[in-house]
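REQUEST FORM: STRUCTURE PREDICTION
Request ID: SP-0412
Submitted by: Lab K.M.
Chain count: 1
Length (residues): 172
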Amino acid sequence: MSSDHRKDWDTYFMDIAFMVSTRSQCPRRHVGAVLVQGKKLLGTAYNGAPMGVPDCLEAGCMIAEDYELVVTEGVEEMVKKQRCIRTIHAEQNLLLFTDRIDREGSTVYVTDEPCWTCANMLANSGITEIVYHRTYPKDSRKVSLMMAQKGISFRQLEQYEPPRETLMSVEN
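STATUS: Completed
RESULT:
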């Protein structure tokens, strides 16, 4: 491959995040995350049940339903949110298996926009940038606002195309 066809760093690290996501056993969504400092890969993680515990494919999803009051242009609406509580999210696993010193000033590449809980954790982790591909509309507005308040660069790779072998259908 000539240098004319060399992938840029965002594509390179997002490709790795998508490859990591293929380790997930979640039937609803495969998510991968990678920690990068400069151009050095420091850690990878994916979503799944705790080690040694049956995952959703073996034991079924544990779906919890929450309701959230959302105000849009002065109009209040109750929004139902479903989430699997058997699964540890990729971003949470990444924080569990990397050191704070490595996270200081680093970038997290994640296949999906972080949920509110993961965004809160990432905001206090020492990272300075989050790069994602797929949106997570349920929490997008409030997560974007918090990242701006924290001064964390938060950007979507909209034109990115994941490696074909990593694709699965996802539920929003």
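NOTES: The chain has a mean pLDDT of 91.
Reviewed by: T.R.
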